[in-house]
Amino acid sequence: MDEEGVLNINSSVSIRLKGISGEVKGKAWESTNILRAGRLDTLEIVLDDSSVSRRHAEVRHAETGWWVRDLESTNGTFVNGVRLGPGERQLHPRDIVQFGKVAMMVELLDAPPPEPVRQPASSEQIVVEAEASSSWQEGYDRLLLDRNHAPRPGDQLMALLRAGHHLVNIESEDELLYSILNDAVHVLDAQRGAIVLAEGPDNELKLKALATGRGETTSRFNFSKGLANRCYSQGKSILCSSVEEDKELCGAISIADGAMASVLCVLLRSPRKHLGAIHLDRSYWQKPFTEDDLHLADALAAHVSAGIECAQLLRRQRELFLQTISALASAVEMRDAYTGGHTARVTAYSLLVGEELGLSPKELDQLRTGGPLHDIGKIGIDDAILRKPDRLTDAEFEIMKTHTTLGDDILKSIPELKDTRPIVRSHHERWDGRGYPDKLAGEDIPLLARVLAVADAFDAMTTKRPYNVGHVKTPEQAFAEVERFSGSQFDPRCALAFLEVKAHVLEAMRNSRATGMFHMNFADK
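The chain above was modelled as a monomer; its predicted structure follows.
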């Protein structure tokens, strides 16, 4: 060091730029005085890449070390992700230099080894630096105190408090996972995060949520599967950095997407079992995660795991419930030879209309339940009427109409289905007030009943029934009828939405004919 604290690099120190992305990965260029990069054949580093200018940048040696300068390139020169402006930028070992989209890592030959603060961002290998192996109770006990038994800082406590708030105030499992992940990414200053959960008989880890440090969700698959599997199978929360020694684990993250320089993978577990993992990473220009970060993330994982497990149990319970509903609807249809597959088709069409109308997830969920059950009252209709092959008499039709109120009465004994009852009771009401059983009109008819009414009528027109034998309409004719009776039989908004999803309805009908059956997954999407 000189008196001003500037490190003097001996003139014998040479530089090596090692390619770490795309076509240049594995290649290297060395010099003791200058390296110029661009597309021109006369330069020291010739880069055949559309993002690189003809004369893009130069790396030059001076008394104080190695410096890089952009030569007014179109797509810029970057050091550790920061674009260079006018002037020069000094280079240090393990810096990442990008010419356009082409990335290289700086190595100074014969220089003293750098402090192991930051591992090479370009590396796709991972080595374990620290592990935390604790029970759910031990992790939960660290909510208020860190690993040194000191009170946690206020921002950390607020993050843990928010996580607890999510558990009691969010009903959707997907929304819960994204909320937990976004808080973890924020409080631990991660560039990216993922939640993976074990599913199926083999407990295979499946990606459930991804988020970035900018508060965005993302569909990119940027996390280490190997590290997540190691965390889950060994039951340990892990702190890692990207280095070249460990050949077992590979992140496979490109420089363009942002490399993983420091990684946390913490175990999601309840007192009963391991659930999965939260995977967080920082880029090479961020400060690496510490053991304190590892223990904070581990405490957060322990805190939220019970809520995640409960959400999973509720989802599975609901799936079983919907399967039971579907089985019950099938039992009703087996009594009526004319309505085979009717409830599945009506439910599918209703969900298409509901999505077109922008209904809330809760309302769509009610349609998933109400669709299969809308004709449940037919259980109480005598077979002589229900299965009559000819047109019903006026008296018989009056009895048939009671399936709406019978269905409502059946569901009264199940409090959990109170939101489904309006669909079952009112799906035969008409916009003009001439329907049944209550002669409701317009907005007085429950919205979900109005949605299902259009789907129910369309399916009735396009399938064989006692009252339309020989007059089954083609889909085009049925769509025309929906348009014709908009504003009289049907809510105009619902009718318009049904016409807007015409292509999807026709596709569902074609698939049904091709397979000989109509299948609809009623589980939450």
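The first helix runs from residue 136 to 141.
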